[in-house]
Write a structure and sequence with these properties.
Elements lengths: L11 E2 L6 E10 L5 E10 L2 E8 L4 H16 L4 H9 L9 E4 L5 E5 L5 H13 L5 E6 L8 H13 L4 E5 L3 H8 L8 E4 L2 H11 L5 E5 L7 H7 L6 H4 L5 H4 L2
Parallel strand pairs: 1-2, 6-10, 7-8, 7-10, 8-9
Antiparallel strand pairs: 2-3, 3-4, 5-6
Helix pairs in contact: 1-2, 3-4, 4-5, 6-7
């Protein structure tokens, strides 16, 4: 691609030939062992700076930071200044955002929307967290047409190998539940038609210190589940997706 433009090109990523190479990616944990964000390094030539970002998870966050760092370098910023600025950044609502939950739990709020690729990415994030009981609350992935059943079954196969308890929300998510039952105990799988119906069950089954991933297409309104179990519901307007009057009236 770089050969197709006369513009200045700066590459970034985890590959060895990236001009801005990202490395040492890992989760950051607090003193109680709860995930609080991600850490990684940005390397350019012989220079290297650490970055620690609180509030969000996922390699996608590190890659977004790589893009920002590339722009910063083009504009003349040094790596130390870039690292300091990135460390002050907090991710957007509903995009693998870490929120404190009830009973000392941790919520991974990924409720902005859902596609098969994004669902698998979110489950990978949940899988890689150390030392916690893991719950997933997964809603329908909409607008998949003829691929819908298979896509939900694939998610179920993955979720069944990762989660200790699984809550499925929506008509299509029943295919998630069915496939997951081949990998985990059926008594730990719950199905509901709507997020309003599911949220009280989620509140009931959460245990102290659990990590809870919540994700689904925007039409399933999975943010209602987050609101039910978040430790600070009074902050929902700033922390959750779809809090406008238009959405709240639906």
């Amino acid at each position: 691609m770089a050969h197709s433009t006369r513009a200045k090109v700066v590459s970034y990523g985890f590959t060895e030939n990236s001009q801005l190479k990202l490395s040492s990616y890992d989760y950051a944990y607090d003193e109680d062992g709860k995930p609080i964000g991600v850490s990684f390094k940005i390397n350019q030539g012989i220079s290297s700076v650490p970055v620690r970002m609180a509030g969000s998870l996922g390699k996608s966050m590190a890659l977004s930071c790589g893009a920002a760092a590339a722009v910063g370098r083009i504009l003349g910023l040094n790596l130390v200044s870039i690292s300091e600025a990135l460390s002050r950044f907090h991710g957007q609502p509903g995009r693998l955002r870490i929120l404190p939950g009830i009973k000392g739990s941790i919520i991974i709020d990924d409720t902005y929307n859902a596609s098969p690729a994004a669902m698998h990415l979110a489950l990978e994030v949940l899988k890689d967290i150390k030392g916690a009981r893991k719950l997933a609350v997964l809603g329908d992935m909409l607008e998949l047409g003829e691929y819908s059943i298979k896509a939900h079954q694939d998610v179920g196969n993955m979720a069944g190998n990762i989660t200790d308890a699984l809550v499925c929300v929506g008509a299509r998510a029943k295919f998630i539940a069915d496939s997951a039952s081949n990998q985990m105990l059926k008594e730990n799988i719950y199905t509901f038609e709507t997020s309003d119906a599911a949220k009280l069950k989620v509140q009931e089954i959460i245990r102290e210190g659990d990590v809870v991933l919540i994700k689904g297409s925007q039409g399933i309104r999975m943010e209602k589940v987050v609101e039910e179990i978040m430790a600070e519901p009074e902050k929902k307007m700033e922390l959750l997706v779809r809090q406008s009057r238009k959405w709240l009236a639906k």
